[in-house]
Amino acid sequence: MMMKSFLLSFILFFLLLLLHTPSTSSSVLPVCNHQDNSNLLHFKNSFAIHTSLYWRCSSYSNKIASWKNGTDCCDWDGVTCDTTSGHVIGLDLSCAMLEGEFDPNSTLFHLTHLQQLNLAFNNFSNSPIYPEIGDLESLTHLNLSFSSFGTHIPSTISHLSQLLSLDLSGNYELTLDELTWSKLIGNTTNLKVLVLDPIDMSSIRETSLSMLVNFSSSLISLSLSYTGLHGKFPSSILGLPNLEELSLFGNRELKGELPKSNWSTPLSILDLSFTAFSGQIPDSIGHLKFLNQLLLPNCQFDGLISGFFWNLTQLTHLDLSWNRLHGEIPSLLSNLKHLIHLDLSFNRFNGPIPDVFDNFTKLHLLDVSFNSLGGQLPSSLLDLTQLSHLDLSENQFTGSIPRKNVSLSKLETLALNNNFINGTIPDWCYSLSLLIELDLSQNQLTGSINKFSSFSLESLFLSDNKFQGDFPNSIFEFLENLKYLDMSSNDLSGLVNFSHFSKLENLTYLDLSDNKFLSIDTNSDVDYILPKLSRLHFSSCDLTAFPSFLTRLENLGRLDLSNNKIHEKIPNWFNDNLLHKWKSMDIIDLSFNQLQGDLPIPPARIEILSLSNNNFTGHIPSTFCNATFLNALILSHNHLSGMIPHCLGAFPSLNILDLQVNNLHGSIPTNFSQGNQFQTIKLNGNQLEGQLPNWLETLQELKVLSLRANKFYGTITTSFSAKHPFQKLRIFDVSNNKFSGPLPATLFENFQGMKDLSDDSTHQPPGLSYLNNSRSYRLTYNDSVVVTMKGESIELVRILTTFTTIDLSNNMFDGEIPHVIGELSSLKGLNLSHNKISGIIPQSLGNLTSLEWLDFSWNQLEGEIPVCLTNLNFLAVLNLSQNHLEGMIPTGKQFNTFQNDSYIGNPMLCGFPLSKSCSNNDEEAPSVYDQEEESRFGWKAVAVGYGCGMVFGMFLGRLFIKTAKPLWLARLLCGYSY
Ligand SMILES: *[C@@H]1O[C@H](CO)[C@@H](O)[C@H](O)[C@H]1NC(C)=O
Ligand SMILES: *[C@@H]1O[C@H](CO)[C@@H](O)[C@H](O)[C@H]1NC(C)=O
Ligand SMILES: *[C@@H]1O[C@H](CO)[C@@H](O)[C@H](O)[C@H]1NC(C)=O
User: Fold this and answer.
1) 87 lines ligand 3 (CB under 6 A)
2) Which residue's C-alpha comes closest to atom 6 of ligand 3?
3) For the chain, domain boundaries
């Protein structure tokens, strides 16, 4: 077929040549205008020929080599003359390897008859486009693309009113100002092609941008990608009657919407990738019979895709990824048979994928990852003969991987990870001859892992499944190109001789963690090295000593030996390697072992060092001061003594400092630098003392502060050294110390992180993700909170990221509970127990509608329990015992679930659940407020009864109506603090 058409065109070409040659070579050839001839020669002499080649040029030629004095310029390469006048009217020097600066007096500007000028793909060394370009008023085609022109486009370019095509793209140093833009758009009314990406057009305001609307109806192609355009893009451009192509790629701040009607009928390419276009994809788009490429990734489109959309039968490229589209993908998808590239990833599509792929004979890429798609995997996927990339990961697919004769002979990437796929790996997966990456991790696959025969395989990810049986030793024979191997978190068994991995010379990433029955033979005598292995994860592998093969890893950069039974001191050779061989090591996790003796010496570039839950002793040595790249330092649950090295406070990127539960003493370093990155500081369970340093409040990123169970003392105040102290704090635990003085009301005022949960940035999950090519490393690091229930302290680990708590218990705080606490509306836990707090329980606490756990026990609180507290619909734990509270216990909602122990030790309380019933006098309790309160809000108690608790029934209701200000008052008292 191909051969035939090639022959045909060759014959045609030959015939044409025969017909053409005599006429061109003899009579009609014009004689070059003398002046033009000389201008061209001067032009030639101002440039050198360079040799660096542009990949965009399919061929290069030294065109000007043929330009010689004394010959006719109409014969020269790249030159076209007018057949009658002999004037040069066309100059095509694209890909001509010209190099050098343009001269403002360049003789090129004297060629005023030029109609077509193409200087694309040369190197003019950031020369300006000189204003003289405006002298070439006959130009219809101007192409200066990818030629290293710089500075700004001269306003005289608007003189080129005959232009049909203007291409200035690929000149990264060019700018186009607003006035020039307006003049250009105003004067070039015949323009068909305008290509300006990535020229800096950021100074152009919305009003001037909208001039495009009045633009000539002749426009066929408009490309303004990466120009820094912003404001709203006039959607009526998409209605210009001849528009075939619009590209606005990469204008992050350019807003706009797709038109609901009046689309430009010939539109064939629409590229709005990485813009701020939003709204729905309208039905009317379905009328675009010629649309080939619809590229809308990384915009803000939302809503459903209507049935009309699937009329776009000519689509070859459809990319809707990274939007907020939802709804099901209908079987109408089968209309789009010409698709080559289909990317719907990172949306909210749900429902099954229709089983309609039998006819997609051209599909090259299919990506629906990161949606909520479910159901079985359609078996017609296996018919896609041209498919090279299939990504269905991060959905909710169930069932097994289909089995049948497979046509996927071109498949290079297969990603089904993070679904609920079960069953075994079908045979076809083992033998795809071009496969490079296979990711089946995080599913529910079972059975054994058989023999892979895809020699090309570089990445094999099978982690977090239920694979059983022996470790597939066949990988050592067949997969010699393997770079990444992750078999972690399965039920694999058998013995792996580590020396076998030396056969995989390209291996850089190996994770065999968490296979209960797998043992690793680490003591081979075979002489081998693994020159490329840099990431090694052997967590929960039953290791009892540091594997000696580690010394053979020349380039180790990441090491996870956590959760093993390593019961020894850090060997000297290990420290030696850290100091000399493994200098680029960035993550070490040795936590949850039984390591003893001194801490290891941190390599200089370490970013995450977790040594927690071991038996390390001694001080934190000054060698830690060299590890200035540290992001997370976790030394918790050891037996470390001595002081905290002061240098830790000055590390510029330290996020997590966890030294909890050791024997550290002394004070907190005083030199914590302002503006650093601390998110978590846990120093609880040590012998630290001194006052709470004021710099803590300057830590703008701090989310978790735990100083529990130390010997800190003094009052907690704000120094006002920070504008918004503790603004992101979510967990504030200073319990079990010797703090005294009033509760820190000014601090509470600033706990923005406990007030507004809508700000996502404040509540990003703790822990740190590290991207490692296609694999990310996630440090398992969870914030925890101690809750005291029924006399027992329970540590809640793996708490939700939105868990916000304040714990000031077991100190010597006195004074009253500040009203502002009621503003911390997302607070889930509040513990003020075991202090000397007096006064009443403020009404504002009724606003803490997220509160689940409240402990005020062992204080000197008096007055009544505010009925507003019955508003706390999530309250599960309440402890008000051992105070001087009085009157009737509110009833209703959660209050019906609390038992005696919530209230004991308050002899003047009565009512359910206490056995002491309230007398009639007691029932009118709400009116017995303290005098000051009473005088300010004469009828407050009534309102409380009605508006918040609805406890006191009819007679209070009647009283209430008399006040005639029911609603706002109820809101005042219960809805908001006062
Ligand atoms: C071309 O040659 C003529 C005569 O030899 C000479 O006068 C003229 O300066 C030359 N032009 C250029 C541009 O070198
Ligand atoms: C350009 O020509 C003008 C007048 O002919 C002259 O004054 C100027 O110096 C020239 N500039 C350059 C850079 O040659
Ligand atoms: C528009 O083009 C004409 C013809 O080239 C020219 O004379 C005029 O100055 C141009 N107007 C503007 C605003 O550039």
Assistant:
1) no
2) 159
3) 35-175
